[in-house]
Structure formats: structure tokens, C-alpha cells
Amino acid sequence: MAFAMGSTIQRRRIVIQGIVQGVGFRPFVYRQALGRELAGFVLNDSSGVTIEVEGTAGALDDFQRALHEETPRLARIDSVFTEVVLPLHESAFIIAHSEAGAERHALISPDTATCDDCLRELFDPRDRRYGYPFTNCTNCGPRFTIVQDVPYDRNKTTMRVFPMCPACQAEYDDPLNRRFHAQPNACPVCGPHVRLHLWANLHDRPLAEGPDPITTAAQWLASGAILAIKGLGGYHLACDALNVEAVQRLRRQKHREAKPFALMVPDIETARRLCQVNDDEAALLESRRRPIVLLNSHASSRLAPGVAPAYNTLGVMLPYTPLHHLLLNAFAAIEPGRPLLTGRLTEGRSASFVAGLDLGRAVLVMTSGNLSEEPIAYRDEDAQERLASIADGMLAHNRDIHMRCDDPVLRITTGGEQFFRRSRGYAPEPIPLTFDLPVPLLACGGHLKNTFCLSKGRQAFVSHHIGDLENLETLTSFREGIEHFERLFDIYPQAIAYDLHPEYLATKYALDREAGGVDIPQKIGVQHHHAHIASVLAEHGLQGPVIGVAADGTGYGSDGAVWGCEIMAADLLNFERLAHLSYVPLPGGEQAVRQPWRMAATYLYQAYGDAFLELDIPFVRQLDRSKWRTLAQMIIRKINSPPTSSLGRLFDSVAALIGLRSEVVYEGQAAIELETRAARIDLPDIYPFATGDTLDVLPMMRAIVSDIQQGVPTDYIAARFHRSMAELLAAACCEAREQTGLNIVALSGGVFQNQLLLERLLALLEELAFQVYINRRVPPNDGGLSLGQLAIAAARLQAK
Ligand SMILES: [Zn+2]
Ligand SMILES: [Zn+2]
What we know:
Layout: E1 9-19, H1 25-35, E2 39-45, E3 48-56, H2 57-69, E4 76-85, E5 93-95, H3 116-122, H4 166-173, E6 194-198, H5 213-222, E7 227-230, E8 235-240, H6 244-253, E9 262-264, H7 268-274, H8 279-286, E10 292-296, E11 313-317, H9 322-333, E12 364-368, H10 380-387, E13 393-397, E14 409-413, E15 416-421, E16 431-432, E17 441-443, E18 453-456, E19 459-462, H11 472-489, E20 495-499, H12 505-512, E21 514-515, E22 518-519, E23 522-526, H13 528-540, E24 546-556, E25 562-570, E26 575-581, E27 584-585, H14 590-594, H15 596-608, H16 618-622, H17 625-636, E28 643-644, H18 647-657, H19 669-677, E29 694-695, H20 698-709, H21 714-740, E30 744-748, H22 755-767, E31 771-774, H23 785-799
Parallel strand pairs: 2-5, 7-13, 9-11, 10-14, 17-20, 20-23, 24-30, 26-29, 30-31
Antiparallel strand pairs: 1-3, 1-4, 2-3, 6-13, 7-8, 8-12, 9-12, 10-11, 14-15, 16-19, 17-18, 18-19, 21-22, 24-25, 25-26, 27-28
Helix pairs in contact: 5-9, 13-23, 15-18, 15-20, 18-19, 20-21, 21-22
Bound molecules: zinc ion (ZN) (2 copies).
């Protein structure tokens, strides 16, 4: 085209889709245009951002390069469409008014950790936001948790009750300011404030008090208090992680007997004093998402033993709100034995100044603000009511949280990240699909660690972590969460995917669900483990067929049995079960999950018959014979003893058999302890097993018994068992390959949170020249089910 040549003026229309609204994208475009003396406009519209820009071809190319290379921190460009249009010979570049209804389709950014610019202001005594715990800008701060409705605008967030002062308004209106259209913008004059509440049970404790609530809170923590602290997506319960008594008291009062507490430390250096931190882990800790990262702990740290009993990993996170930064800073400034400070921040202190201290007072327990099993508290009155029995006081504030959102939990494993929980900082960012959905879809997820997923076009909005759908409050969260997502993303599902388990509350919801008084016509039941495998396919843009290995706790099988170790040939439409762990009875159903001794006894009974009672091993000697007789009757008469192929239960039974744990308080606890105990050594031999249609581990159980009888250390047995299971699954993959000719393997299911098993199996499959995929964007546990259900439902609708 002639007008594109040489120094002639050219005009281009650029349409950008992705996370480009509410993240400072228009002012960024404005600055780029201004700096190159280009004319035209930028505006938000229903598809994202549209730019028309004119200038010389060279300047325009440079402008487009900058759009890609200097994209604002929170923006994510998914696609760019460019066309040349006739130049209008304009002289200025403007931010045009958005089209009506534009933001309706905008993507809402996840909550994001305080940026470096805001941190500098926070600790700069000359800045008007010095020490202000709600400092934020377009690059950081609360988003998803404060949004009540769309379009994303201040009056549709919980910030609407704080009218901006003239100084904040001027920032908000200035396209060249970092706070241009930053909806949560605030300062000490106009914004929210913290309050410290002292509860009655603290009166007998000698605590210093100061003028500043955060410094005072830090002093309380240093004196051994437990505080409820309001964060982004809910309340935390905090105490000094080096204080043995405080940690024990928190554990007791929260009724949390076993699960480890997460920690918050001010910086990477402190994290390194507690744990091994490699470069990938450091990058993840410091990322703007600020997840809890599971790290291998140093045996020598001075942490209170109650923080993570029986674990060799710690869940660690860095501060992600200004309030966290201020609190940790103040906490670390209190030196043991010195009189407590009472002033405000000391001048010139940076967030990382504690680097030189030997742990000092730099590590806080920061665990979810709830009683065990309940969802995290996020409304102030609710927190007051529920947490008063646990905490000595509450550091709260008057900015409401609209959406509860737990901390995300990840781990770096072979080749990348692995989610244990995808939540704050990640949700509601969509997971891109490589296929088009025929109609808008809702997938309801599973029962434990529930997430749901709403989707249209090519975007899958996997929800934040909802939790175990076992009480009214979590179920309410689930329902309200779905309604909220439907409104925010303008998705009204015409088909629903659900798990086949008839008793799952999510399934009941799906079957009852109507839309505008009309039944939703298409309801698609999806088998649990097929959904696990499909979640891997959806993430990686695969259609299948693949060899799927689902290693799991429990899931409803197509034959009504409780499945949990399934080798299948699967694509997004269907699956064929090629092999599975041999069925054993699951006596007492759910009770067998809480009581691993039941599974151990059942496995021994399978391996030896009644003669197992004569075995001279500690497990059998300690077995309560009358309880066993009841159990045996249930098994023989097939009362509440469904057959199961669960791999999780096999891990439980081995843990119980070698004396680690006969009862647990949460699913997977015994298996985690088994992994923790496994010696990290390469043992030459493995236990025997048989493959085929059914994977037989009874020879393995007999060999374990023999090891116990010979006094082999439990660490060795645990290691040998892990190694043997990896060999067994690899052998099953080889048989599946021979049977089907497939060479791609997808691994999913909660058991693959076990790093020892996963890493060993990945290494074996690589040696065997398989191409292997695992979950990288959603958890392998039931938190990833909704994405898999969605992909299967879409494929089935497409095939119709
Ligand atoms: Zn910022
Ligand atoms: Zn202000």
C-alpha cells in the first residue's frame, strides 16, 4: 500500500484482547504514543482495548514493539489484531471514552502483591503514604476480592464508601500518573484504616501498647499473643513462629491437630534460613502472586516444633499487602530483651532490613482464620464471633472483603510449578483453552477441595478454592461464588458438567440447577478419574487419546465401586479402563479414610486370610481384636464395604502397617507422613507385584510384612514402597502402550502431590521414552476436576 511507504503518515487500528482493562493499559498506551509524538486514541471496548494510532511506519513499528515488550505488570495480552486504515491527520493522542457496556466483558485481575513503587512510598517518611497500610496503584493491590459487580469501577467495589480526597482524585484523573483509574486508590486522608481490638481474655497478659495499631500488634505478637489479622481474601491467625507456647496454644484453640501452619517471612533471606530455596522457588515466592510455596526445611531451624510436626517441608510466603510489610517490619524491629518500641516506623527502614538478624523476630505463623474444617472468616462480625475463642485480639480494618479467597499453595517440582491450591493471586484469571466451546458451560467440580469452572469462548474461569462441601457455609460459598462469576464474566451456562457421585452436593446442585426458572437442558455426568486426566489434556491443549494414570484417594467409578488407581486410554470424549489396582473392601466407607488401620487390616486379611492374626508384627499385636471382628463381619457380609481400587488408601494402609499412624484427622495425612519418612536413598531392590488387568499388590504386602519381621527400618520400607509403586505404574504404562500403541502419558489425581512418587515415576517414564504431561495450571487433586469436567462436556457437546 502506497501510503505505508517512507516517511508518509500511516494509521493503524490495533485491537488487543486479554487482561487489558483495570490494569493501567490505556495510560500505558497513552504514554507510549506521547513519547513518539503519535496521534490517535485508545479506548476500552467489549473485546478489550482498541487503539488507532498514526505516524511514520518506523514510529508505529516501534510503538507496537513497546506494546509487547513493556506491557504493564498486571496486563496479559492474549491476542493482537492489526489493520491499516486511512489516516485522519490528527495532531493529538487521547484516551477516549469507553463504549457503553465495554467493561462488561473485561477480565478482572487477580489480587496482586504490593509493587516496588508502592513499597518505596510506604517506607519513605517524606511520602504522604508513609506507613499507610492500604497503599496501592494500577500495578498492585486488591482486585478480585473487592469487586462486587461489573463494570469494574470504584462504585462497584467495596471501596465505594471512601470518596477520594482531592489529592487522590488528581492522581486518579491523570493519565500519566501511576494511579490513573486505580479503583482502590486511597491515602490516610480518605481511605480505610486499621483498628486493633483487644479481647477480654488478654487482660491478664502484660503487653506494651503504642500509638500505632500495627506497631502495637507487633508488640503483642512478640509477647506471645495470637492475633486475627484481616488480609486480602480473609482473616489469618498469626503468632510468633519461634514461640513454642504461642504455637501450641494456637494449635489447641484452632482445633488443628495435625496440618502444618503456613509461615510469613519478610524476605527471601529469612526464607533461606528456614528452608532450601532454589532460584525457581525464590522467583515464585517473590512473584506478584505471592503464593505459599512448599519448601524443604532445614532440620536445624529454631522454629517452634508445633509449626509443622512430622513434616520435612514448610509452607512459606512473603508479605503481599502493605499491612503485612508494616507488621513484619515492626515485628522484626522488636529485639528480644530490649524494651518494646512504642513509636511509629523508624526512618529509612526497608522491608528487607532484617536480613542481618539470625531469624530474630522475623517469622510469623499465618494460618487461615478459621476453626478446623470451617471456611476462612472474611466478614468482620463473623471473624469477631468465630475467632474470639482462638485469638487474643484482632487487627482489622474497614475495607470490606467481598469475596473470600484463601492463600494459594504451590510447589516447584520436576520441570515447573505444581499447584496444591489455586486461589488468591491466580483466580479469576482464565485458563486459555485451545478449542471453542459450543455453548457457555458450568462445571461443578468435586466434593473435597472444590472449585467450579465457568467458561465461554476459549476462556475457562476456574474459581478460587471453595473448600470441602461438607457444611452449609461452604455450600453457600459455592452457590454464591457461581452466581458472582456468572455476573462478573457474563456467562450464563447452557450446559452443566458434574461428577457421577450421586451424593456429592456439587452433583445435587448441578442436577437441581435451573436458569431463569427453566431447567438447563444439557447436564453431563463425568467420571471422576476421566475428569482428572482431561484436566491435563485441557491445560496442555491435547485432544488425546493418551494413556491416563489417575492416582487418587476416592472417586465414584462407572461400576459403582470406589476407584482410585486407574490406567486408562482416554481422550476428551471417552475413556477405556485398561487396568486398575485390585479391588479390596473399603470397610466403613468414609470411616476407613479416617482410620488407616482399617485398610491395613483389610489388606492383611486379603493377603493371609484369618491367619494374619497370627503374624508376629507390632501392628497385629496392637490390633483391637473386637474392632477387627466387627470389621471382618462387615467385609464378609458386604455391609458398607464397597470395593475400592484407591491408591490413597493403599498408602494409608502401608503407613498404618509400619506403625506411623492408625488414625488421621484429614485425608492423606498418613500418606504424607509415609512420604516424609521415606529415606531419600536409592534402594537397589523393589517389592514384588503383578500387572495385567488388575494390579496386584498383595505380594508387596507380604514382602513388607517380612521386612517388618526382619527389623528393616521403617524409613527403608517407606522408601522401597514408594519406589515399588513407581515401578508398578511404569510397568502398567508399558502394558498399556503395547495394548494401544499410545506413547503419551497424562498423570493426575491427588496422590501425585506425593513428590517422591511423582519424581520417581517421571524419571522411569522418561527412561522408557514416554512423552509425559502433568498438571501445571490446576492442582492434580480434586481442585482440578472442574476444568477436566468442562473439557469433557465441551467435547461431547461438540461431537453431537
Ligand atoms: Zn503499586
Ligand atoms: Zn486520599
